[in-house]
Amino acid sequence: MIIVNLIIAVIALIIAILAYQKAGGVKELRKQIDSISNLGESVASKAGSSVRDKTADMLGKMESSVRGTKEKKKEKETKK
To answer: What one-character-per-residue DSSP string does 44-69 give?
Structure first.
């Protein structure tokens, strides 16, 4: 009985290996991993640039609110 179980297990293993290779095997897996990593990099680069732009705009607005515009400075100087 043990021998029959061993033979069935070996046959099942061989069938599984053949099915894996027919489905694409390691080459297909590597191709999918590369495409996913490239997609992730492109998304990250697009998101990074927009975040940088938004941060720069926000800092510019903060600077102008803290320092004030040139017109506000002139008004303050003329009032003194």
So the answer is: HHHHHHHHHHHHHHHHHHHHHHHH--
| Tokens encoding 14 | 């061989």
Alpha-carbon distance values, 72 to 4, 22, 49, 76 (Å): 93, 74, 33, 6
| DSSP assignment letter at 32 | H
Both tokens of residue 69?
């515009």
Assign 24 to helix, strand or coil: coil
For every one of its 80 residues, what pLDDT tens digit does the chain have, with 9 covering 90 and above? Answer: 999 999 999 999 999 999 988 888 878 878 888 888 877 667 666 666 677 788 888 888 888 888 876 666 566 666 65
Torsion-angle region of 62 (φ positive above 0: left; ψ -120 to 50: alpha; else: beta): alpha
